[in-house]
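Pasting two entries for a bug report.
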Amino acid sequence: MSSGRDSISMSAGLAICVVALALASAAQLASSRPTTFAQDFQVAWADTHVRQIDGGRAVQLLLDQNSGCGFASKRKYLFGQVSMRIKLVPGDSAGTVAAFYNSDTAGVRDELDFEFLGNRSGQPYTVQTNIFAHGKGDREQYYVDDVPVRVFKNNEAKGVGYPNSQPMGVYSTLWEADDWATRGGLEKIDWTKAPFVAHYKDFDIEGCPVPGPARCASNPTNWWEGANYKGLTALEARKYRWVRVNHMIYDYCTDKSRFPVPPPECTAGI
């Protein structure tokens, strides 16, 4: 991932609702229509480490010394909402990374991602977010448990790239990265605790699949085109500021060693 990122600390072992708007200007958690895993997703690698449970309504990703694993959506989407509930690896998860991201893997890189960085027992996870637009990282809206934790507005008028032209797939992976994931690589993975297991359920994709109806992305009846989805409400804005004041541990917008002059999107507000 690019070194340009935001990082937030949070408690470990929680059930997390992750909502990322794939390319629209804003998002909120709408009424979900969870499906089974196989309706919208498929195993991307290491099928022996992906277990469908509860009649296919949930999956477990396993990490051991042999392999990590991952899954991907069967289709790509241009605009819409993706949500699922994730229970991260409990206990001692140091050196592990559970990633959830939307990405275009064929063209110039567009990507919206979460990376949940494990930690020693009792210590908080770090949630690292990043955005790539037209191949450039360092930077749309991310929610954890209905709380916005990352906002990236469309500022193309200011010359800021925005990922709104390439359809993206939806991916999640569980893998070992103890050379950097926990305290910069100081805390190594303890393989005696393997297998490490992350749980996923309530899969929901609502959006414009590609290929699909040509008018989907510009259809005024799409719920994400409504005024309520073009920005944060006053309550959401308060929650957003609270998260950043109380839990943020890194913000590229304030990193003057890398950006003596803040990137233009950093002064755009929410």
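Entry 2 (this is the one that rendered wrong in the viewer):
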Amino acid sequence: MAPQPKDPSIKYYQLDDFELQSGEILPSAYIAYKTYGSPTNPCILYPTWYSGTIVAGNEWLISTPEHPRRALDPERYFIVVPAIFGNGESTSPSNTTGPKGGVNMPKTSIYDNVKAQHQLLTQGLGITDQIAVLGWSMGAGQAFQWASQYPDMVKLAVPFCGSARTSFHNWVFLEAVKGAILTDTEGYCGGRYMEEKGQQPIVGLKALGRVYAGWGFSQTFYREKGFEKYYGIHGVERVMVEFWEKWSTSKDANNMLHMLWTWQHGDISAQPLYADDSGLAEADRRLSDRGLGRPGAGSEQDEDAFKRALKGIKAEVLIMPCNNDLYFPPEDSQIEKDYIGDNAELKVIKSIWGHWAGGPGDSKNDAKFLDDSIYTFFKQHGF
């Protein structure tokens, strides 16, 4: 059963006992979401990202009196922002109990998230027309997934600073993030930290923030003292504490690990529609907790499945990487564009902000560039 929201604008859609791609059941599952605008208008789906929440994480790109935008305008569109599993708003380790609650909550893939969002739109909100879907980071992964998983329903897709498949390099980075928490054995308590100590594993969460510190922004951002200029934080150690540790220690450790698993396993070819003989559609053949030790991972069969999944996208796609993104470089986005074909366009965000160029709106110039680009893309394709 979904909790009572602290923000009355947040709604919940009950999925009941929801069958996952793994074959496991997520009991009494639900999606948290918020809508903007009238349901009589064309629908834009805008999923959340790793650790991001609905309002604080996504509302910066939606037009409000505080920050007017041209693209995501509730006067013209019906905008739906669903929270991914594990973010603390939708079904998550932090808000579930029982045999499949907390650290024992079944792992969820991006495929599972998109399947649940599709149910929300079609059964919960009655959306039957084609939609546009967009997102930053893990939200971009969901945009790619939507366009491949439901190719006839997606008219336009705009993934920015994200990927259709988690790269080997990105997977390695995430291993360090995961290790930051798990090596705090005294604080993490095998995932039962609240039951045994009544608090989060602070040492592990601080370490997680420090791992992130070298990745979220570019080398140029640090060299040009971006934190001092844009955030008023002087000195690298203060950046570590006042920006990164402040962020990471505000999170729930099991939630972060759950979403991390989802991110590591991101791969639009790992679904029955495209997997074919690669074995990627089988739960025990996808990237597991043993990582890339899966026999055949990165094989020619896997790459063929990835090509099929991207080629299966019928939507017009605007892919927007940042030239200084350390997670999702433009070279990977170029491969995605080439595999999709003529219905894909690559537009690079040129910014020293790195991954943060795509969100959550701290870079005003990049936010304007995204807004203008999405607005023009929608207009070009009659949406």
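Dev reply: Rendering is fixed now. As a check, the viewer should reflect this: The chain has 15 helices and eight strands.
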